[in-house]
Each structure stands twice: as structure tokens, then as C-alpha cells.
Fold these 4 entries.
Entry 1:
Amino acid sequence: MTPLLSQVLLQNRKPSRIARIDEYRKSGGYEALARVLKNLSPRDVSHQVGEANLRGRGGAGFPAGRKWASVSEKGPFPRYLVTNADEMEPGTFKDRVLIHADPHMLIEGMIIAAYAVSASKGFLFVRPSYESVASIMEREVKIAEEAGYLGKNILGSSFSFEIVVHRSGGRYICGESSAMLNAIEGKRPNPRHSPPRSTEAGLWGKPTVVNNPETLANVPHIIRNGAGWFKDLARSETGSGTKLYCVSGRVNRPGCFELPIGTPLSELIEEHAGNMVAGHDFKTCLPGGASTRFLPRDLYNVEMDFEPMIKAGNRLGTGSVIVFDQNTCLVDATLNMTEFFARESCGWCTPCREGFPYVRDLLRRIENGEGEEEYLPLIRTLCDEMTNSFCSFAPGGVSPVESLLEFFEDEVMEHIRKRKCPFKRSKQ
Ligand SMILES: Cc1cc2nc3c(=O)[nH]c(=O)nc-3n(C[C@H](O)[C@H](O)[C@H](O)COP(=O)(O)O)c2cc1C
Ligand code: SF4
């Protein structure tokens, strides 16, 4: 197996315990914060993160430096930073691994990001089934306060910042950044209209920056080692940094792996995830969680980075690969995901609220041997309509369905012709 040369975010990961503040400090932790508060202006920090080409790791890949710089210096106060640890995207568990490995890396990243946008309060929004993440963070935030890294006049500077851990009510849509702001305000978590962007008018109408934990954990390293160092970590030409990839499905060693961004999918599966289980061949995967598209077999060597994935007609998403083998029925798998999206739709707009149950019912009939050929154009039309929904939940949610029909139409047709699921016998 190729050694993991670029352990940055998971450098203090141990199988049985989290890194405490002393261990984090021993590995250079909180040096970046001291340097920022002493030598850098907020704009310098955004600029350096922009130069490093740090793209958001929560799914959309938006450049973090550009987002921070879009908070107007003249904008109103107070300002907020929200860390999105909702992590309900099926197949994704990297933020849980990261926080369990080294919580202070995220805390330091949050403080530096808050400094860059002059935020005085930060929320860590946590999925309720991640109670261990919430309680670890509550404990470690207190320790950081006692050490002078949080609270009033951090390290003797004029900058003050506090972090509050907020437990989510537990719906997938709460991870959509504007719905999350409604949830924190105690409102129903429907996504908000944009404009205004949250960097202009977010929490309680004040400028608010939302970032993913993995995005923020990279920040101290960029400040300490420089933008050039961060760019050089990547394997792909357009990438920067490492990536926490999750792999699940029929592989020998499912898990979360930190690798240079742009590592080929084939290498991720064969070397790091221990290859396919004996007797099971790679058929396809969803490369970035359930709201990305099935990847055809001829793209098995694609570089797992934002731009190469777009060129391949797909999305990197959260970089969480769900692997399917030749014995897995993709109609059944897509039905399973569509059931999830139908359940999790917030119901705000008609195409999504009505579309997912309709597509789910058609897929269910096909899977049960009750499908008709005319369902295929109907499903395609429904998916087209659903991409015009109010937020990006629906275009993401129909991605497996659209790509099922694009790349695996034969498999769907076989269900219809045989009037049964052809995989039922070989299911294990
Ligand atoms: C339905 C839905 C769920 C989402 N869930 C998450 C999530 O759990 N964590 C996350 O960081 N981003 C999630 N996102 C993306 C966020 O809206 C937002 O782009 C992200 O938190 C910004 O952080 P980043 O720029 O650091 O990636 C979700 C988006 C949608 C549409
Ligand atoms: S697309 Fe779905 S999740 Fe998004 S606002 Fe409409 S109903 Fe809600």
C-alpha cells in the first residue's frame, strides 16, 4: 500500500482517543492563531486563504477566501461564523472523524476565520446523532477558553470570540446553509431566498459566514506553512491541499482516508480502501455522497478533485465514495436514496415536495416488477422539472436517478421486461 505522505488534518489521529490540547500544541497547534493576531490584518488572512485556493469541503467547493472577502468591511455588527457539522449526506462521515481526531484544529480554524471576517460569535451546528461530537466540542471549547484562545481579548489582543455548540433538530435540509440559519434562529428550516447572501444578511440579518469543519481545519496549516505549500499538497493540477475521502460499500477496508486532493478513484479504492471484496467487481460508485451521479466504469481513474469531476460530468460533493458491485441492483439502490430524499424534502416548493414521492413510487414499481416502459420518459421529465426547485436539495437528490437512466437504462429495462428484479436471487 502506498504510504500516506500527506497527513495534515489527521496527523494526530489515534484509534482509541482524541488529541488533547497539549498534543495539538506539540504539533504546532495555535501557532497560526498567535501569528495572525500579532502580524496579520483580517484582509491579510482572507487573502492568504484565497491564494491557497482553499475550496469549501462541504459539497459545493466555493472558494473560502473569496467568501470571507465578500463580507464588507463596512457591513454591520455583530457578525457570525457558523460551522456546518450537520453531515447527513449519506455515505459521509469525515467531519465526525476529523473532530474525534483533533477538535482543537477545528477550534483554531474557527477562531482565525472569525478574525478574518470580524465575527464575535461562532456556532457549531451538529447533527443530533453526533452527540459525542457535540459533547467533545463543548468540553474542548471550555479548555480553549481557559487557555486564553477563546473569550475576551484573545491572547492579549483586541479580538474577542466565543463558540456555542448548537444541536440540530435532525433533518437533512438543516445542512443547507440558509436553512441552517433559520434553524439556529429557532424557525422552521426552509432555505432562504438569495440574494441577500448570508455574508450580507445572515443570522438575525447580520453578516454570517458558513463553512464546513474540514474547510476550517485547513486554515491554521495554510497560515503556518503558506499558500504555496498548500497548493503543492495536491496531486491534480487545479487542486489544493489534501482531502478527507470516505469510502463505503463492497470494499475490504471502508473508512476515512486523508490523501492529496486529486488522488485517482482507482487508487483510493484499490490501495487505501483495500480493494473490492473477493468475488465482487466494481460496477459504479457515487463519488461524492448520495446527491452526486453514478460514475460510469470508464471513469474509474478519474482524479478526485473539483475540476476533474466537473469535466467528468459529475461532482466531487463531499468526496464520499459509495461503491456498488456487479451483484447490486442499482434500481433498488436508487430507490433507497430516493426514499431518503422524499422523506427529507422540506416541502417548501412543489417540484421537490411532489416530485420525489412520485419518482420513488415509479422506481418502486419497476423494482417490484410492475414497471412499464413509459415510466422512463416520465421519470426523466419529472427530474428535469425538479432541477428547477427552490434550493439545491432537489437537483442533488435527482442525480442518482438521472444517471441511473443515462448509464444503466439496460438494467432498468431488464426489470421491466422480466417483470421482476433480476438481482433478487444473487442478493446477499
Ligand atoms: C440539502 C443540503 C445539505 C447540506 N448539508 C451539508 C452539511 O451537512 N455540511 C456542510 O458543510 N455542507 C452542507 N451543505 C452545503 C452547505 O449549504 C454549504 O455550501 C456549506 O456548508 C458551505 O461550507 P464550505 O464552503 O466550507 O463547503 C448542504 C447543502 C444542501 C443543499
Ligand atoms: S427544493 Fe426541496 S428542500 Fe429545497 S426548498 Fe424546495 S422543497 Fe425544500
Note: Residues 56-60, 62, 84, 86-89, 172-173, 175-177, 210-212, 215, 391-393, 396 surround flavin mononucleotide (ligand 1) (CB under 6 Å).
Entry 2:
Amino acid sequence: MPLVTLKEVLDTAYREGYAVGAFNIIDLEFLEAIVLAAHRKNSPVILNIAEVHFPFVNLEHIVPVVKEIAREEHFDMVLNLDHGLTMEAIERAIANGFTSIMFDGSHLDFDENVKQTREVVKMCHAVNISVEGELGAVGGAEGGGLVGKADPSKYTDVVQAKEFARQTGVDALAVAIGNSHGKYKGEPDLDFQRLKAIRDAVAVPLVLHGGSGISAADFRNAISLGIAKINFFTGMSEAAIQTTTSYVQRIGTQYNDYPMMMKEVKESVAAVVAEQMEIFGSTGKAANH
Ligand SMILES: [Zn+2]
């Protein structure tokens, strides 16, 4: 079936109390690993391509493949621009047929974030594309190798969140509640009280970035408090590197080892993704909108 919008997938997940994972594509290997996991788990999936990863993945080449896979598979697939920062990237994603845009205005002051997000919503909704906004600053840097540390002074403000959602018309809102991109320094310490207050104040599904390193119990708690989309990348990257390292140590570095090594890498990344789908509760919800 064709790609579906973020709104279609998240509204059902939010209502039924599970979350859909958003996993980043950086090449065909990661794309196939994610699809393999969704297929095995009968789960909907959000494919993320982050603007910071544009130097690694050619949109014009990979998006036709994504669309072809969506047509062949039975589960809901969303193609989302992750952390869109520039209008150039957003327009390129729209031209390529993305069904969701995350506009990251979290570095702007509140009024400017509202203004720019509202513009993106207007542009995207006119062509049936969903929009995710972000308010508050998630720690670390998307796609970077940095150790993320959340700054409590930058957590999402409840009153602002309500205004932001109302004024922009976003379909989903990414929150900062102690979550962080990259590797966590120590145990993640999520502010669930704040999350609950945001959920009560805002009508749209909420999004948790920086999923790698958060415990299954914390995920379940967060999902029960309105999180319906979880961004996850670092754990996949980590699995790929560990598998590569262990393959080289076990088997060696023969010139013809590459295909077998990449097969193991793909399986290890698929296993990480499948495990998250179990925890997020999206298994068996393949086409549930
Ligand atoms: Zn993120």
C-alpha cells in the first residue's frame, strides 16, 4: 500500500496506548533492516531521514525504493523528515513525496518557533503531509556522536506547549523531559510529572526523541502518558558497529568477507529494531489506522 501520513498512524496509536518507532535510514542496509523487523513483527513503522544525514543518503535515489517497499508490504509506513532545519530541506522532502515533516524550531525563541512552525504546517497540510513540531530542547545532537545531557532549564514548559499546539496546528509535538540524543550519561531521568501535565494540556500525540538507552519500564510509563512516537537511532548504529567489530575479530579481514559481514550487520540491526517494537507495543498493529 502507499505510504501513509504520520497523523494516520499516530492518532490510532495514541488512542490505543502504544507507540510507533521512528528509525533512521542512513543507507539501504538500515532501510532493509528496519523493513525486515516491521515485517517480522507485523508492526507499523516510521522511517526517518534526518537533514543532518543528507550527506550520507541521497533522497532522490532512496525514496523510490522506500515507496516500492511500501507498495509491496502490508504494514503502514510513514516517511518522515527528521529534524528539518531549513526550508530547502523541507521543500526537497515534500518534492520527494515524504508523508511527514518534523520541523525543528526548538533553537528559536517561542514566538519565532510558533511563527515558523505555523508556516510549515500551512504548507504541508495543503498537500496532506503531517507536521511534528518541537518545543523545549532535547539534549545532545541528532546524528552526532555526542554524549547527550539534558538541561532541566530547557525542558518543555506546560503552558507554552498548550499555546504552541493550539497556535501552530501541529499533528504531533516532540517534548524535552530529560530525554537526550546520542548516548546517555548515566541513567536517563525522565520527568514523568511534566509529561503527564503536557499530555493533559495538549490534544495531539507526543513524541520522545533520544530513545536509545531508555529502559523498557520508562518507555511503557511514557507511552501511558501520551508518547505515541519514539525516535531511535543510536542503538542501531551501536549494534552495527559492534557486529562489524566482532565479525572482523572472529573471521578476519579477507577481501571476500564483506557480503557475509553486512548480512550479520543487517540482522543485528533488525533484531534491535524488533526488540523496540515489542517494547513500544506496536507489534501486530501493522495496518491499524
Ligand atoms: Zn531527535
Note: Residues 83, 138, 142, 181, 209, 231 surround zinc ion (CB under 6 Å).
Entry 3:
Amino acid sequence: MPMTQEDIRCHYEKEWKGKSDRASDASGLTYSSPVEDAVLYPIYQQLAADVGARVDGGRVLDVGCGSGRWIRFFLERYRPALLMGIDFAEASIELLRKWSPPTDGTTLDFRVADITSGHLSLGEPFDWINVANVLFHIPEPDLFMRALHTLASLVAPDGRIVTTEYLPRTSMRTEWMMVRSRYEFEAAVQAVGLRIVAVRAGGFFVHDPMGLDGPDQGVRRRFYQVRFAQERLLNGAGDEQTRGFLVSYMAELEQATLAFCKERLADIDLPGQKLVVLARAE
Ligand SMILES: C[S@@+](CC[C@H](N)C(=O)[O-])C[C@H]1O[C@@H](n2cnc3c(N)ncnc32)[C@H](O)[C@@H]1O
């Protein structure tokens, strides 16, 4: 039975509560794999620079901040004036409020908030809104449109929103996700007065291959096999040195494959997630 938004909320309440109970320091506050981080973060930073994002000195919002992976990312690489994290799972916000990282002048603010709830007031508009791995977890069409309306209302006139999407040619519903096609996604953002200003592939094997059309038994199965094998290798690495070597090897492989494909294909046609930058249409 596919998950609803409410099922997703219940799942993350449990997930972040468990993490909160186990976390003894900031190193526990992560989500994702070290290979994904090594590949995606430089691509993200380059993209932010290319679209003229005002992150340093700006008001930055992380939507669906979860266990704080992107909060860490921004704190370690930029100096926003304000860095606000919102999540509809209370356990996420409890977890992040326990954590007091060095902020070097950035004001940190964590709040429980649901972007599908209609009107959301978070003060002055934001220069940069990060929405990582959130929108495809909102399967219901009315809630998805409300979430987009909310994002449009929160972004400054010259601000930007970056969201992670797969953008295949045909929409597909999985147990966990509503993977919207590039056409459906673009029509939805236009309907709320936004436009797509950039699409950049963020990985090759490091994400589920939902950018590919067709059934899981098709080409996607081969990608899943690579992903599972990589996971087994990393989990089975006996010591830190071997693990470190494997992470850099896998990241190199990923970067070489991505670079080769990007010379020949549009980013939107690659198998994994894309970073999609949105701006106000007017
Ligand atoms: C897959 S996790 C991603 C966490 C983090 N953004 C990352 O990329 O590592 C999705 C997060 O979005 C939150 N979320 C999902 N729907 C939301 C909504 N409508 N409003 C606010 N947060 C939401 C979930 O509670 C969860 O923490």
C-alpha cells in the first residue's frame, strides 16, 4: 500500500526520535551516504554560485531539515545571516535543538512547520530555500500544490529555491514516492508563479535511479544491483582506511561517469536526482 503524507510524517517521527535517542554528538546528525556527500556537495556549491545564490549573508531556509544534514552543510561551507530549519516531524526539531554547533555569527532557528498546511508565516522572505528529498514525499496532488504555493510565498523576489527531483518522462508512484514527470513538475511550478531556471544532475549511482522510465525490472534493476553492491562493500569494510579508500574510489567512479555523460546528454536525462532551481516567474 503506497504511503500517504501522514504515513511519511509518522515514519520520520519514529526515525528522528530513534536518532535523537542515539545521537551523542553532531556526527550522529547525518542522513545520506559519504559517497553521495562527496559527489553532490561540490555540484551543489557550483550550482549555487552559477545561479548567483545569496547564501553568505542571506536568509536561508532548509525545508524538511530532518536530522540536520543540510544545516551542517550550510554551516560548514557558508556564513548565512539566518539559517532556519523546518520540519513537520517534531522529533526532527527536538533532535536539532539538542545540537549546538559553532555558528560563527549565523543565527540558527529550528521550527516545527508543515509546508502543506496552507499559510505559513516565517518572517521576512528567504534568499535561498533548500528542499532536499521532500516534495516527492508529498503524493497527494492537492497537498503538493499547497506545498509549492507555500514555497512561492516564502522566497524573496530575487531569491531562489533548490529542490531535488528525478524528472523522468513519465510520472510514477512508488511505495515511498510520487515521482513526477518533468512535464507534470514544470506545469505545477508554473501554476504557482514559479519557473525552472536550472536543472543539474547530482549523481549517477548514488540515488535511486528514478530518473529512468519503465518498470523496476528493466534498466533500473541493474542500477539497484550496483547500489546494493556498493552498500555491501561499504558496510563490510573492516577498518576506517579501507572504508576511506572505497568511498574515494566510488566517488571517483561516480564523478568520471557523470562527467562523461554530461558531455553527451542533457542533465535532465541522467538516471539519478537533479538539483532543480526555481525562481519567481515575473
Ligand atoms: C527524506 S527526509 C530528507 C531529510 C533532509 N532534507 C535530507 O535531504 O537529508 C524528508 C524530510 O522531510 C520532512 N517532510 C516531509 N514532508 C514535509 C512537510 N510537508 N513539511 C515539512 N517537512 C516535511 C520529513 O519529516 C523528513 O524529515
Note: Residues 64 and 87 are 4 Å apart (CA to CA).
Entry 4:
Amino acid sequence: MTQRNNQQIRDLVREDRVHRDLYVNPDVFDLEMDRIWSRAWIFVGHDSQVPNAGDFYATEIGREPVIMVRQTNGDVRVLHNRCAHKGAKLTGRPQGNCKGFRCPYHGWTYKLDGRLAGVPARKGYDNTPFDMKDPRFSLAPVAQADSYRGFVFATLDPNAPPLPEFLDDAAATLDNIADRAPEGEVEVAGPPLRYLHNCNWKMFVENLNDAMHPMVAHASVGNAARRYVAEQPEGTEYPPEAEIIFPFGSSYEFFDKMQVTALPHGHAYMGGELSIHSDYSAVPGYWDAMVKSYGEERTKKILSQNRHNTIFYPSFTAKDAIQAVRVCRPIAVDKTMIESWHFRLKGAPEQMLKRTILYSRLINSNASMVGPDDWDCYTRIQEGLVSDAKVWVDTSRGLGREEAVGDGRRKSFGTSDLSYRNQIQAWLEYMTDEVAA
Ligand code: FES
Ligand SMILES: [Fe+2]
């Protein structure tokens, strides 16, 4: 596949279907790592994870191990997690604090900004090309790193467009998450929850705006919640659990009305002002704290934005109304780690965070009542695509019925496959060297 030319890659995609190789072929996966995950802006972490100088967080951009580290001047840098000597990963720990990095193999040490600080028994390098000041002997910074409202992204491509241009209107989702905090900032609440999926990474990202599956794949939990509530004596208040689970049994018409908006670079979101998260009850004290910070009119405007899932193709997805994000970390063609992250709204009552965590526990975690339904479907797709009976995957729902709404954005009814097709279009652009400038 690595030898496949652009035409052969284009042959895997039709306007109404895609070839199964996108999901099952390990060579396609390798090429994706080179051409998509090395070029797009990938979510690294949130700057609140590294509040103090020397705090670091280690993760991957595609297959590339990286470290996000807070500098003494307050900046956040993203460095390759690879010793300049013989290549050992500098830290195997996911996070911590240090004055500098010391390689566990031969003890080369580095400053927080990646510059080489020391080498044991240095005399052995006398009269060799070794030079402490040569960047060749320092930790390499990633090609570009930037943050938006505290969300740190990085790309391995020096020619990638600037982060705000890449984010496009998906940035409004990050703005809304931060604006929902009376202090205008969020902070990470604990480490992410990790859930290993036996499927190709695209199945997860494509599913997020697939509004044709909840009423089928999640029917049992929706029905059970309804039955439980029906059995309660009249006048019983809905528990917050029911409020969260109910919408997953919403009708096709409800999701159609919610609408899907496709953005450049493969990004998309459902909802806007109407989403399955619109009806959450108010948390006591939250409204007042918001009005104190923003005034009533602006508070109403902030709280009226409800995007169900915003996809920042390929790595990051966010729900603004509940401050929960999920991050996709591909491991192999049929293995993907999904991380669920939770954010505390600074200045808001603690109950807001409890709601976010409750949501994750009920919907996203591996012990939840909803996420495992999706997990099962992805696993079945991965297994079903092995069949030689057919090689194509359908993406035709709503084809040709989308409406251009300016600036490269398109809108359609919520159960359309528009978000799928939009992602595949971005996939093709990255994979064929035709990245839109
Ligand atoms: S590999 Fe890091 S010091 Fe040798
Ligand atoms: Fe689902």
C-alpha cells in the first residue's frame, strides 16, 4: 500500500461508499499514520494538566511519543519523547514533575526546553563531532504546537495551517466549554478514563454523529430507563441518570431536527441550539455565578449553545454542554484507545463536575450502559468486514441533499451520512497529498 499511488487511494472512495480496506488493511493504517496523523493537528492535552514549571504529560501523536512540558517562563512546549543519544524514550511515566529530563539508559540530561544539559564522562567525546550546543544532541520540539482556550494541539507537519485555521468553527465548541465557567477557564479533573476498542479508529469518530444508531443500538437502556420511571409513583422527580439516558432513545425525527453541520478539514457537529443535551436541569448556584460574571444576556447566549458532538478530525471530540471530551489514539488497524476527559468549570458549583462525571460513567466508560453498545457494534463491523461477500461500506444517506451554508460549511438533516462523507473527503485530501490550504 505504501507504494499505492494517489489514483489507487482514490479508487477506495466513491461518493456514496468506501472500500473496506480503509478499516481492515494494515498498510492503509500505516499510510494514515504518515499522512493524516503526522499532518493534522492532534490533541495532546490540556494546559491545566501541567500547571507548574517542570510538570509534564507524556502521550502520542499517532505513533510518535511526545511530552507536553511547562517551562520556567510559563510556556507549554511539546517535545519528542526520544533521547538524542541512542533513542530511548525519556519518560515512561505518563505524568510527573521534574527539573529536567534524565535518560534512564546512559544518563544524558536535558533542560525543560529540550536542550542538552549534561553527558556523563564527557571526555570520551573529545575530538569527535559531538557538540553540546548542536540541536542534533537536544530533544527535538514537534514541528508546531499551540493551544486554544487551554486545549493543547500539536502537529508534526511544519507546513500545517495555523491551529485557529485548522479548528475553523469547531473552535466555538472549545470557546463554549471555557465560557461555561464563570471564570472563563476550565481545568482537567483527574486523569482520563481509558477504554480500549477492538476496532479501527475511524469507526469511533464516524459513529459520533451517526444519529441512525441510538434508537437501535441503545434501545435496551432507553427502554429500561423509561420503564423504571413509569413504575415510580406520580410526582416523583426524575433522577439525573434518567435525564442523561432518556435522550439516547430519541426518535429519528428528533435527531433530524437537530441537524448536522459539516466543516472544513473533516470537522462536524450536530445540534447547535437543539441537542440531546438541551434539557439538563439547572444546578443551584450556577446560574447566579454565571450572571455575576457575564450578565444575564450573555449567560443565556452561552448556555443556549448545545452541540451534541463536535468532531475535530481526526483525534478529538467534545460535548460543550457537559464539558466532556473524548480523544482517539489509534494503536493498530483494529485497535484504538479512547480516552474520556472531564473538566471542572472554574468558579462553578462542584455539582457541575459531578454531572460531567456522571455522564461519563453512564454513557462513555467501559462500565457504562451506553458505550459498550457502541463497542459491540464496532467489534462486529471489524469482524463483519472480513467477509468477502462485499467490499463496500455504504455512506449514501442524504447524499446530494446537503445545503451549502458558506465558508465551506454544509448542513443537512441529522440522520444524514453527511458527517461520514465529510470525514472521508478530508481522509482523501490528507492521503493523496491534496490537503486543502
Ligand atoms: S539512549 Fe539516552 S542516554 Fe543513551
Ligand atoms: Fe452510540
Note: The chain has 15 helices and 23 strands.
